[in-house]
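Archive entry: two folds, one per protein. Generate the first.
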Amino acid sequence: MLLEFRTKNYKSFSEELRFSMTPAPKQKGLEYSILTNSVGNKKYKGLCSAVIYGPNASGKTNIIGAMDTLKAIVIRGNIDNADVSSPNYASAALELIPNCNGNSAPTEFLIRFIDVGLLIEYSIKIDLGTFLDRDYHRRILEEKLIVNEKQIFFRSDTLEVSLPETIRSYINRSIRRKTPKMIEYATDSLSDTELFLTNGFKSIYAQKLAAVITNWFNNKFIVVFHAEDMRVVRKFVDPKANTVYVEKTLTDAAKAFGVTANALGYKPGGEKNEEDSELYSIFGDKLLPAEVFESYGTIRFINEFPLVLYALMNGGTLVVDEFDASIHPMALMNIINIFHNDSLNKNCAQLIFNTHNPIFLDASLLRRDEIKFVERDEKTGNSIHYALSDFRTADGVRKGEDYMSNYFVSRYGAVRDIDFTPLLENVIENEELANA
């Protein structure tokens, strides 16, 4: 269960972004939107959904991109560039991360989540130089791990490691007590670009704990930077395996969505292309590529729905860029309600997505702390993020207020007046002068 994500100097977010999935204080109503997870004798609460609003180019996608980038860094264990194909280029080419206005400040990430009964907070501060400076000598300035509110390690110019009782069962069996030699060995074996978490800490101190953290990033933090990215679907539901996700359940979901004349399924690629699995419309014993027969919205929905099932069944946090593009809002509203349904969402799954559709600005559907905004300063180009719950009740956020109408009259910001008329008038005038 994700509780909080932060980043700083990531693309348009020059200042710190704090994206909270913790219920805001004094917010009442829609209590079924609240998840509860236990860590020892203490209970923590989280939101089961969040929707992000803002005009085009405001920085909504940068929030999801930052999450995807931190995930990629943790999984590969370093801040070197990676030779991988990803729609989020910044996750592989880190010189694209710093703010493009010449900001040379470090880039920072922090994430707090709960998994297997542990409250985990992991953060890194990295020096990437300036925007597009690929040859810069990168280095990790700080790296910190806190588990159950106790610091486990802190890396800066020096390295500090603690092994409190709270993680005793996760410590490597070979360790009976800490020694200065361990610190010396761990420091000497660590390069400027390697994460201590997935290198020295894993091999010397606590392989099981490092595995818990990387497994959560790998298997429960489901970040879809482009909603049509089949790479993500293959990773989490494996169409080649012909599992229930992509066979009977897929067809049943398609029928509920409105596809009634045929079944759907994935067909694995040939021997030389086993990683590619294409979606097909099935007519008895005949197959037709879905892109030939189905609408774009149907194809997107069918590709995304297995991820919804996976998140619900495994307690994952599903983060999707423009989840609702080409999908009818009633279908997405039902998916939101499924995440809000305690009898279905038994594993503390979460759904986070950005959108332009105002239909979700509804007090009967989402809490004020689940409605997020992003806007961009026209002078500096920097993005800022805030939630509807950050506004006072005097600003029109009382229970029962018409959030949608208030949004369109710019009471909450994160909306832009657009008028192409002067541009078109100028083009027409210049064309007429040229032809005169």
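Generate the second and append.
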Amino acid sequence: MVSGLVQSGNKASVAIGSEAMQVEATTTAPGATLADTIAVPVFEAEGIAHDLEGGQLDALVDRGEARTSVGSVALTHAGSTRYLIYGLGSRDRLDGEAARRAAAAVEAEARRLGTETLCVEIPHHASDQVVEGLVEGVVLSAHRWDTRKTENSARREPATRVLLSDHQDRSAAVARGFLLATAQNCARDLQNAPPNELTPEALVARAEEIALLSEHASLETLDRAGLIAAGCGAFAAVAQGSVREPRMIILRWSPPGVDAKPLAIVGKAVTFDSGGISIKPSGGMEEMKFDMSGGATALEATAAIIELGIATPVICIVGATENLPSGSAMLPSDIVTASDGTTIEIDNTDAEGRLVLADCIVRAKAEGASRIVDFATLTGAMRIALGHAYAGLFSNSDAWAEQLLDASAESGEPLWRMPLHPSYMKMIEGRYADIRNTSSKRVAGASTGAEFIHHFAGDEIPWAHIDIAGVADGVGLPYAKHGGAGFGVRLLVCLTESLAEA
């Protein structure tokens, strides 16, 4: 579990597994840091800027033992110090994502070698985005996802100290990259936790911790009785099959001196999704603990926004529940009523996330949100359409979609815009109620799911739906190979920063 973030001057530390990793910026030359492992960058068609005496590192590149491609790492020694030559590709294509991938490869090799202190040389004239990417790649790669194993002789612990060396002080970029990566790792910890521990009540406990980060943050929750009293019949219907209490988590960030309507960040947090009465196949059902990934993203992005003190008011609304079959579970053909009065025919109890989001989005509008963005592992259709490369973006506003795409490009968390269309809405028109929660046709599953949510968002407020079904877990990135990926945390921070600057 990632915890215990501490920052002081140009240093930051975090607990990763059983070890504490300290990350800091330094203007000391790599060779003078006394690090046992030093990582030196190399670009295509360029020599190594700070070579060893006799050109030892450049010689490795010339012989082809060290390559310049992103993700390549070559090892050599000079005395008792290890040197890792890491490729960054073409200088004119270097961005934060390339830096993350390269740094992840460095961290993995350094961990294999049993490194205690790792010094990463920052390439000359690197942007802050690249510096942040180097930090993020190391910290994300070092994240432990297998800490529950009582005996794991194959596991190597990451370095306990990481230095980022440059001629100029890069403390601000190092600290920001560290905070973002730590927030993303916190989201991954929530995702990876087993569902018998990561319950709706446990998410409330995490929200309580976040609310204590600032006197300008506050928390409100609705339990089962509160949902029913508030008319949230869609959300409550999903929860009625489980003995565990559902929770609507309403976490507010009101930065001092800012008088503006809040951005609403809405997250789906189905802490285990069996499919309910429309039960899923048993093969792969264990992965349904990840159906709370949207809620994890929303909570930990809000935590980062608070820690950074971003001057954008935020209301984070997370719908947390289990979806289980039981004698009290909702049934196919039930009709439920959402908090805006919409009646919904339940065709399939496994299309539950949109029911939870419906009442959460109605609440966001009632809270006076100026814009809404929701994150949800909503449809298998999105995974089929885009695989692990992109999350799907749906929006009722071209301008709002462009802002999200800009934040996507800055954060390195890719979005691909998908279509909304009246024909998709017609596919979920109700037979016995206003709308149905699925279409009878096995086509356009991601778009019909988005149109269901669009019904509740309406068109008066800019709204976007991010379907993260394909990018939430098991994405195989160099810095997030296994388990939860924490997708969207960095994106949301970049988005709120852009709103604060507008």
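Annotation attached to the second fold: Residues 1-10, 13-19 have pLDDT under 50 and may be disordered. Residues 88 and 494 are 24 Å apart (CA to CA).
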